[in-house]
Amino acid sequence: MKKQTPPSLKKKRASRSTSTRPSAGKNRPATPKPSFEKKDSALEHPSKIQSHSEERHDGEGGDFLLKALSTSAPTSGKQNHAFTHGFHAYPGRFPPQLVQTLLRPLKPEGEFKLFDPFMGGGTTLVEGMCKGFEVVGNDLNAMAGLVAGERCRLRTPSENREVLALVKEIRERIIERQDKSQKKLIRRANISWLRSHYAPHLFVELLYWIDEIDKLPNAPIRATLRMVFCDLVFKFSNGALVDPSEERKTPPLPKGAVSRWIVARTEELLKNQQTFNLKMPRQTKKATLFTEDFISFTELPEGSIDLIITAPPAPGSWDYYEYHLLQFKWLNLAEETLKDHEIGTKRLQSPRQWQQSFRTILLKTRKVLKPGGSCYLVISDWLDREQRINALAYIQKFAPSVGWKIAGSASVRQKLFNAHQAEFYGEEGKWEHLIHLKNPAKQTPAFKTEKNQRPRS
To answer: What is the distance between the alpha carbons of residues 4 and 431, in angstroms, rounded to a whole number?
Structure first.
């Protein structure tokens, strides 16, 4: 049988949801050309997809902060997907240019440590490694740890070739398994639940792939292919999990589409990982990643971090448990911790309950930061009982009470999505803020008040 040439990744990108056109002279739809550039634009940080109509800044370096925050405007093109940033959709992330701007004046001296306690997909960590910094990330979401780990992976060209050869071998084995009249029964957790979200031919092919991947003895290769697989499970689904109210629609993809996309996606990831590895200075260390609840986080020594850049969850944040549930089921990951302890989601916390959690966040970030160190927070206004809460004013009021000094801030007004939001945010509107917090050189006794207790939900 003549092998098909892998789909070109240099032609026009194919949208996840765009219907395919029939191939010339054939009655079946053509498989879309695999590409993951800009596929998750609707899941970008809010400032990426909203236009800014106003801006302001205050304090020390306020103009610099405004410049960093203004990079959120949708003018950056492919830069948001440079290196490994484009791999795997992850909601709520901020653009790489924001972190690049904040890091640009810094020079790596000694063991400079950069920390993101809510790392998400690892944007801060990737940019920190490109500067040669030692990076540390944490996130309660197990999927965040897997995505960030793959975006930050260090791999040699020979290792890349090994991964690519192996994924092609798996493709051939799956073709053989599909052609056999007597198909071997595969036992897997959540299989009945997963089957309901796919067309039969796509589900069987996905099941063969994850079965083959999980048998691989090489742990790093297995982790990479699990994440490539996970990056595509939404594409082949009928969409019912994303919006149960909509009619289930099976993607018009033929038999073999899963294999072609996985091989092509792997090729693209390896290419971008190689570019990322070439960008990093020599002796750059591997990223240190944790998947802990930051409310009870104790993994880092006090005063061990030089700089923090993060976007802590605000009230009404993304519900990552619901968003990643399909991937949790495929990978058979423990989901109870995220389900029961996620911060900011309406499912678990009211805005007032969130305030308790956020106070602990302010305490813990300051505790791990060196005296005189800086923390940059990205946070947007939110609604509490249909009343607008100014996030900047809130932090200006409460951050000093736990020992922080507010050095400067910048804000941009966001275009609201709908009339409901416009009504409650009123004339003042909704703003996104970049706030520079300084840890005073002389420590205060604020840490004595810390209690690692989670508010009741």
So the answer is: 50
Using alpha carbons, select from 258, 251, 255, 264 the residue that is nearest to residue 18.
251
| Contact between residue 164 and residue 266 where contact means Cβ atoms under 8 Å apart | yes
Burial 391-409 (b: 16+ CB within 10 A, else e): bbebbbeebeebbbebbbb
**Residue in the block written with tokens 């209690």:** 451
Q: How far is CA 151 from CA 75, 98, 117, 318, 358, in A?
A: 23, 18, 17, 21, 28
Please give the Cα distance from 33 to 28 (Å, whole number): 15
Both structure tokens of 243: 């919006």
User: In angstroms, rounded to a whole number, what is the distance separating the alpha carbons of residues 205 and 259?
Assistant: 8
Strands 430-438 vs 382-384: parallel, antiparallel or unpaired: unpaired
Give all domains of the chain, ordered by start, each with its CATH number: 41-153+280-449 (3.40.50.150), 157-278 (no CATH)
Nearest 10 degrees: Cα torsion 240, 242, 244, 245 = -120
User: Mean pLDDT across the stretch 277-288?
Assistant: 91
Mean pLDDT of the chain: 83
**Residue pLDDT, tens place only, 299-320:** 999 999 999 999 999 998 889 9
| Residue owning tokens 């040439």 | 5
Query: How many Cα neighbours within 13 Å face the side chain of 307?
Result: 21
Instruction: Please enumerate in sequence order all residues whose Cβ is within 8 A of that of 225, keeping only pairs 6 or more positions apart, or say none.
Output: 163, 166, 167, 170, 213, 216, 262, 266
Is residue 409 within 8 A of residue 392, CB to CB? The reply is: yes
Checking if the pLDDT of 240 tops 90, the result is: no
User: Strands 369-380, 430-438: parallel, antiparallel or unpaired by DSSP?
Assistant: antiparallel
Return d(Cα 64, Cα 100) in angstroms, integer.
12
Is 124:148 a contact under the CB 8 Å cutoff? no
Give Cα separations from 135 to 130, 275, 432 (angstroms). 10, 19, 25
Please name the helix (run of DSSP H) or strand (run of DSSP E) that holds residue 20, with its range, or none: none
Work out the end-to-end distance of the chain between its first and last CA atoms, rounded to an integer number of angstroms.
59
Cα distance between residue 240 and residue 242, in whole Å: 6
Please report which confidence band the pLDDT of residue 6 belongs to, taking 50, 70 and 90 as the band edges: very low
50 and 414 Cβ atoms separated by less than 8 Å: yes
Q: What residues form DSSP beta bridges with 382?
A: 389
Closest by Cα among 147, 143, 92 to 314: 92
Q: Are 306 and 132 in contact (CB under 8 A)?
A: no
Distance CA 167, CA 259 (A): 9
